[in-house]
Amino acid sequence: MTVTEAKEKLNELELREFAYNHAMGILYYDGTTGAPKASSIPRGKTMGVLAGEAYKISTDKEAVSLLGFLREHADELDADTLRRVELREKGLKELNAVPLETYIEYTELMNEADAVWHEAKEKSDYPMFEPVLKKVIDFTKLFAEKVAPEKSPYDYCLDKYEEGLTMAKCDDFFAKLKERIVPLVKRVQEAEQPDDACAKVFFPIEKQREFSDILMERIGIPRDRCAIGETEHPFTTDFSRNDVRITTHYHEDAFLSSMYSVIHEGGHALYELGGDERFSYTGLSGGVTMGIHESQSRFFENIIGRSREFIGLIYPDAVRLCPELGKYSVEQLYRAANKAEPSLIRTEADELTYALHIMVRYDMERQMINGSVNMKELPEMWNALYKEYLGVTVPDDKRGILQDSHWAGAGIGYFPSYALGSAYGAQYLAKIRESLDFEKTVASGDLKPIRDWLGDRIWKYASSKKPEWILNNAMEAPFDPKYYLDYLEGKMKDVYGF
Ligand code: ZN
Description:
The relative contact order is 0.12. The protein is mainly alpha-helical. It has helices at 3-32, 40-59, 61-72, 79-95, 100-123, 126-147, 153-161, 167-190, 205-219, 255-273, 290-304, 308-321, 330-337, 354-370, 378-390, 416-435, 438-444, 448-457, 467-475, 482-496; strands spanning 226-230, 236-240, 243-248. A hairpin with a 2-residue loop joins strand 2 (236-240) and strand 3 (243-248). The structure holds zinc ion. Zinc ion (ZN) binds at residues 264, 268, 294, 297. Zinc ion is lined by residues 264, 268, 294, 297.
């Protein structure tokens, strides 16, 4: 076999993997949007079969020997192919960690856990969720032990979502955040609070749907490649750079909730849509890590979406669709959208207190994976941490430990990406300001210069580079949370006038 032939074979292999992922992704998306409730059982069976077939394709003799061949000829490979080889090696290690039956059992558990979590959350019944959570934790520990025995299990989890992330790095990052965010929250609480009546006006859902289309257009989403659906918990899923789906959830008396979820998921979508075409159907397509993904979504949601200029931009359409809003000014809406207040729900949290919600989960996960916890005591642990970090009392598990879907999806180690992503975004902003007038650009309504900046430095590389390389390429400096803390302080001063 020549290197050229091997590269051809690699393309064929990754196209087949793409096809299975595409099919499974559509099933998952259908399961969360249009499919009836009882469909989860047959869908679980189908997913189990498809996941088993995909597993075989990726791990069979031919795929393994192809990978070995490419590794042997590493010095003859271009950078993209070499990165594909590296990523495949990492993935193979994960897939080979457990026998096929265990892998299928795990896939089926994911489907079951999601359904159980939904019901448990609805009923605010942690004991109902506890046995599946226990299984998820056990699986996570098993994978950690098999894939990366040299690491502490939670470091393995962190690295899964943010290549290279460790507890040591997280500890340092969160300590820096705590040092400035905690006193800032105190100052904000002592200041006069913005009147947020404008955020509670009755905004008919039909009109909010129209508003979502306008928001997607405003941030520059090509609608021929991105559709929007409705789910209980908003998310983004990508099938290819030509097919990304975002979802939202409408509340008629809290339009900002849907507005910011559309902009957030829209940020994820833009990242996926902005990958270079040459990575399509290969292991290099799609965003590189969750931290960098969240840095895009949270950049659009907060840095652009919660700016005075962006709010001014969408205000006329918002008033047209909901005339009652016209009683309030842009400035009132801006202050309401930026009101900071310790609360119970992470996804509804403001920019300032958001990271504190993440710290609760980081502390919990660390103990769940590295230590040995008493499963029955997890809600108490959660509630105590909320009291400590946010000063709020958790009234029930629905608004406590059961609020997020991540653990049901085995997303242990994912949460720190949100806080890191927010911090990366603030450092991009500082860099963007060196070459363009950010406020003026947003106010103009043409965000193309900002999208181009992100596209050229981040999006187009998809997964073809390591995350540190991409961050450095964007920031031209090492990552420093100082930018994020300065940004938060500046924003709070502006909103609260202290
Ligand atoms: Zn997100």
